[in-house]
Design brief:
By secondary structure, this protein is of the alpha/beta class. Helix content is 29%, strand content 26%. Strand 3 (63-68), helix 2 (75-80) and strand 4 (88-92) form a beta-alpha-beta unit. Mean pLDDT is 77; it is low at 1-27 and 159-169.
């Protein structure tokens, strides 16, 4: 898995001044949208990257929303991953065409610390802009999970994590 940053598609994640009790992923953050591109045959690597952040966000009073295409989250996995079972909500069997709109509505409410959605295609500039606006309005984090196959003959982008931030450019 590799990491690359993209300028001109940035969201900032900052903490407000005078708020020493909360860290940069707290309620006062302005919001963040990030795409996580991962290989389907290596789910453990993605879990190792995201679980610490999800565990930290689980300490907030807000919910975590998982918009999954097919799989239902296992209660046993949620508990063993250290996530708060009472704060994790899931909508499964969501058609891919509804995922972005559902994420926008959920992020905008401010009821969720994080909204995670699975998409097979890259976001358009407009979709990314609308998601970023919604995340900033709701002071939330949105993760777009995009699986790629492990086909060794595949050309194009390798699996990786896109960090949309002006902090790195």
């Amino acid at each position: 898995m590799y990491t690359s940053g993209y300028a001109n598609r940035s969201s900032s994640l900052t903490s407000s001044a005078g708020n020493g009790a909360q860290n940069s992923v707290g309620r006062d953050s302005t919001g963040l949208i990030s795409e996580v591109v991962y290989r389907e045959d290596q789910p453990l690597l993605t879990q190792l990257l995201l679980l610490p952040l999800l565990q930290q966000l689980g300490q907030q009073s807000r919910w975590q929303l998982w918009l999954t295409p097919q799989q239902k989250l296992s209660r046993q996995w949620v508990q063993s991953a250290g996530l708060p079972l009472t704060k994790v909500m899931q909508i499964n069997q969501l058609p891919p065409c509804d995922t972005v709109e559902s994420m926008i509505r959920a992020l905008r409410t401010g009821n969720y610390s994080v909204v995670i959605g699975w998409l097979s295609d890259e976001l358009t500039e407009e979709e990314h802009f609308r998601l970023t606006e919604a995340a900033e309005e709701g002071h939330a984090i949105g993760f777009i999970m995009r699986p790629v196959s492990a086909d060794p003959h595949r050309k194009g982008q390798l699996s990786g994590l896109k960090i949309h931030s002006n902090l790195y450019h």
